[in-house]
UniProtKB/TrEMBL annotation:
<dbReference type="Pfam" id="PF02153">
    <property type="entry name" value="PDH_N"/>
</dbReference>
<dbReference type="InterPro" id="IPR003099">
    <property type="entry name" value="Prephen_DH"/>
</dbReference>
<dbReference type="Pfam" id="PF20463">
    <property type="entry name" value="PDH_C"/>
</dbReference>
<keyword id="KW-0560">Oxidoreductase</keyword>
<dbReference type="InterPro" id="IPR046826">
    <property type="entry name" value="PDH_N"/>
</dbReference>
<comment type="similarity">
    <text>Belongs to the prephenate/arogenate dehydrogenase family.</text>
</comment>
<dbReference type="InterPro" id="IPR046825">
    <property type="entry name" value="PDH_C"/>
</dbReference>
<dbReference type="GO" id="GO:0004665">
    <property type="term" value="F:prephenate dehydrogenase (NADP+) activity"/>
</dbReference>
<dbReference type="InterPro" id="IPR008927">
    <property type="entry name" value="6-PGluconate_DH-like_C_sf"/>
</dbReference>
<dbReference type="GO" id="GO:0008977">
    <property type="term" value="F:prephenate dehydrogenase (NAD+) activity"/>
</dbReference>
<protein>
    <submittedName>
        <fullName>Prephenate dehydrogenase</fullName>
        <ecNumber>1.3.1.12</ecNumber>
    </submittedName>
</protein>
<feature type="domain" description="Prephenate/arogenate dehydrogenase">
    <location>
        <begin position="16"/>
        <end position="293"/>
    </location>
</feature>
<dbReference type="GO" id="GO:0070403">
    <property type="term" value="F:NAD+ binding"/>
</dbReference>
<dbReference type="GO" id="GO:0006571">
    <property type="term" value="P:tyrosine biosynthetic process"/>
</dbReference>
<dbReference type="InterPro" id="IPR036291">
    <property type="entry name" value="NAD(P)-bd_dom_sf"/>
</dbReference>
<dbReference type="InterPro" id="IPR050812">
    <property type="entry name" value="Preph/Arog_dehydrog"/>
</dbReference>
Length: 371
């Protein structure tokens, strides 16, 4: 059975025609996912070239005058989100309208200030994306297992709420209800400030010596991965959510000044404790992050040396399957110039010994095992 056939065989909550305005990464990804479920998807975009590209890739079809969508998804940049929502509410009086903008309060306030009837509007935001944007980077699976925030209010009908929740569930996401204020404060902490921190750190590399950059390992790559994001979009996002971002940045700046002060005089009483407390607090924060299936669980890591030759990863996962070891997470790290990689396999503690001994018996070299 193909993936498309398997998708169509599942119960689908989204019915009728869905109109997606904005054929970029998120809009096209939603289109691909719904199309795979057999839903009629209509795409619209201010850029004819972008629209044609998304259609050519199979994210949906071109609009027709007879279209009567039951759901409209607005997936446009933050600075035009309110304009498009208002236009779509007026154009399709029988449709539920949602948007997937990464900021929720500013568009809502703008719409209210215009006196727009928001009875059929429900703001939402899938916590998913990629560093690269556009229809060419769209993927149907980027929403799987990801939170999808839904901002209902006292005007939201149960029927309309079910439509937006159904969309999130059909795409494999987990619906979470928040107010716009709660959402914007939350994304400032877990998304917007991390983007700035990654960009600021990566910016230090611009004037760095080539020799220093050759020492870069997986840690710095993980820390700066999102620094490859598009500046044009982030200027809009950060501007629309400025105050919550500033609140987190100010607190972070205080923390940085505290650590800098301690390191300027590392032998001064209390300095080493200040540094240790900083690292320890980071440990505590990381432990609070939900892991697989939203669980706060600790895993052990088995590090395997993987030769850089075809078929090695397939053999590794095949051996783990035969050992009945479930891989909770996996990361492959390459060192510059090395002809091998380090495969970091996260497993539940009870499976660590089985994985280590079983892989060694099959000829794999184990680099380390740590908790």
């Amino acid at each position: 059975m193909t993936d498309a056939t398997d998708a169509r065989s599942r119960a689908v909550r989204t019915s009728g025609t869905v109109r997606i305005v904005g054929a970029g990464l998120l809009g096209s990804s939603i289109g691909h996912a719904l199309t795979a479920l057999g839903v009629d998807v209509v795409l619209a975009d201010a850029s004819p070239a972008q629209l044609r590209l998304a259609v050519d890739y199979g994210a949906g079809r071109l609009p027709a005058e007879t279209d009567a969508p039951g759901l409209v998804v607005v997936a446009v940049p933050p600075d035009v989100t309110a304009d498009v929502i208002a236009r779509e509410l007026a154009a399709y009086p029988d449709a539920v309208v949602t948007d997937v903008a990464s900021v929720k309060l500013e568009p809502l306030q703008e719409l209210r200030s215009r006196g727009v009837d928001l009875t059929r509007y429900i703001g939402s935001h899938p916590m998913a994306g990629r560093e690269r944007g556009g229809a060419i980077s769209a993927r149907a699976d980027i929403f799987l297992g990801r939170p999808w925030v839904i901002c209902r209010d006292e005007e939201t009908s149960a029927r309309d709420l079910t439509v937006v929740e159904g969309l999130a569930l059909d795409l494999g996401a987990t619906p979470i209800e928040m107010t716009p204020v709660e959402h914007d404060r939350s994304v400032a902490l877990v998304s917007h400030v991390p983007q700035l921190v990654a960009s600021l750190l990566a910016g230090r590399f611009v004037g760095a010596q080539e020799g220093a950059l050759r020492l870069a390992g997986q840690g710095v790559r993980d820390t700066t991965r999102i620094a490859a994001s598009a500046p044009e979009l982030w200027v809009q996002i950060l501007g629309a959510n400025a105050q919550p971002v500033v609140d987190v940045l100010d607190a972070l700046a205080d923390d940085l000044r505290s650590v800098s002060s301690a390191l300027r005089a590392p032998d001064r009483p209390g300095s080493r404790r200040a540094v240790a407390d900083t690292i320890r607090r980071g440990n505590e924060g990381v432990e609070r992050l939900p892991g697989k299936h939203g669980q706060n669980r600790r895993f052990e890591t088995v590090v395997v040396i993987v030769d850089d030759t075809p078929g090695q990863l397939g053999r590794l996962f095949g051996d783990l399957g035969e050992l009945e070891v479930n891989v909770e997470d996996f990361r492959l790290e390459h060192s510059p110039g090395a002809l091998f990689g380090l495969g970091e396999i996260s497993v539940v503690p009870s499976a660590a010994t089985v994985a280590t001994e079983g892989l060694m018996s099959r000829g794999w070299k184990i680099a380390s095992l740590n908790d």
